[in-house]
Design goal:
The structure is a single chain. By secondary structure, the chain is an all-alpha fold. The protein folds into two domains: 191 residues, MFS general substrate transporter like domains (Growth Hormone, Chain: A); 187 residues, Growth Hormone, Chain: A. The chain has 17 helices and no strands. The two termini are 39 Å apart.
């Protein structure tokens, strides 16, 4: 789409995704390394990561309920952006573990709802053109790749200690841009009250359980894929290329989202994604071949990109008008929060006793169960 055809609200939302995932491109690869350079133990680093993950499960739900009940999505989104930035700035002044743990918990209180709120804003802004969601979300994926690659050079030139400052700069920029986020259309008055019971319909519960299993199956990949390749003797260059290839496949699917959703129903895309995930993890269990491993990374287009986009749209279909923010918050909390949290803990516990190939086999079984549950029971 040409730039002139993009309305101002869409540009702001594009920028929000670009900055949000750009900051994540700093945090995910390098913050734990920063903590390691502070001489934190493995258990201390794990405690910080676990604390952040717990906040992603709990707080989005609370903020989402508040936003939908009182029509405060935009003010809360802006408030949480600035508050999380302020809290993060405190990390510049401490290297003490317990202080950082408290800061992480408070930071999570304000950071946790940002992505689910942004997803809800995007769905409302697109209206009947929701099939274009992927083209907007692709800005985040492109930013993540770009920042991750650039940060490698920045770290080599300076120090990993610059990580906290750069995240602060990115967070502040996002907060400033958030001031121009579009308001909810036609919601000037207090929103109609709704009960959580209206959200947890049969179809919603089946989907949430299935999505939980899908993300749980990804825990071995996100937590141990690089270690798996290192154990197989592959170089750091090959490992980096594998991650970049997966992200490239993800972007290609996202920018083609309107055509994808024009050809297939959301239910069909979700069912296929579960099947492809089972195949992807079976490949990693079965063979150390570089060619097959690279092929499995191309399947990220289905297991993450297509599944994620279809999930956002499916949740939007299932939730009533006055509960869109809460619906997206529940989806993120159950899948990316609870699903990954349980999987990380389980994989960490089973890693030594089972070995990585067996963990990938377990992941294949988990995604297959999720696919069977969704495919055969979602419409009953």
């Amino acid at each position: 789409m040409c730039a002139a055809a993009v309305n101002p609200s869409e540009r702001i939302v594009n920028a929000q995704y670009f900055i949000y995932f750009g900051v994540m491109g700093i945090y995910l690869p390098y913050f734990n390394l920063y903590c390691y350079r502070l001489n934190f133990s493995g258990s201390q680093i794990g405690a910080l990561s676990a604390t952040r993950t717990v906040t992603l499960v709990v707080f989005p739900l609370l903020w989402g309920l508040l936003a939908d009940r009182y029509a405060l999505r935009r003010p809360i989104y802006i408030f949480c952006n600035f508050s999380s930035t302020l809290v993060w700035s405190l990390l510049l002044f401490t290297a003490d573990f317990w202080t950082m743990l408290v800061i992480t918990a408070v930071y999570g209180l304000f950071y946790a709802p940002l992505i689910s709120f942004l997803e809800a804003v995007t769905m409302e802004m697109l209206g009947k053109g929701r099939a274009r969601y992927g083209k907007i979300r692709a800005w985040g994926s492109m930013s993540f790749i770009l920042v991750t690659l650039l940060m490698g050079k920045v770290i080599s030139l300076y120090s990993v200690r610059i990580t906290v400052a750069l995240i602060l700069v990115g967070s502040l920029l996002q907060a400033i841009v958030a001031l121009r986020i579009p308001a909810a259309a036609g919601r000037k008055r207090k929103a109609d009250r709704f009960s959580l019971g209206r959200l947890f319909t049969y179809r919603m519960v089946i989907f949430l359980v299935s999505a939980f299993l899908m993300l749980a199956s990804h825990g071995t990949y996100y937590g141990f894929f690089s270690i798996h390749l290192d154990n197989l003797g592959y170089s750091g260059t090959f490992i980096g290329f594998c991650w970049a290839l997966a992200s490239a496949a993800e972007i290609l699917v996202m920018i083609s989202s309107d055509r994808l959703f024009g050809y297939f129903s959301l239910e069909r895309i979700l069912s296929i994604s579960f099947l492809v995930a089972a195949l992807r993890w079976l490949i990693l269990f079965w063979t150390p071949s570089a060619g097959f491993i690279l092929f499995s990374q191309l399947l990220h287009a289905a297991t993450y990109a297509a599944f994620h986009m279809a999930s956002i749209l499916y949740i939007d279909v299932l939730t009533p008008t006055g509960a869109k923010t809460t619906g997206q918050a529940i989806n993120n909390a159950v899948s990316y929060g609870l699903g990954l949290m349980v999987s990380f803990f389980a994989n960490g516990f089973l890693y030594k006793s089972m070995g990585l190939p067996s963990l990938f086999l377990m992941s294949a079984a988990i995604s297959a169960v999720g696919g069977i549950l969704f495919t055969f029971f979602h419409d009953r």
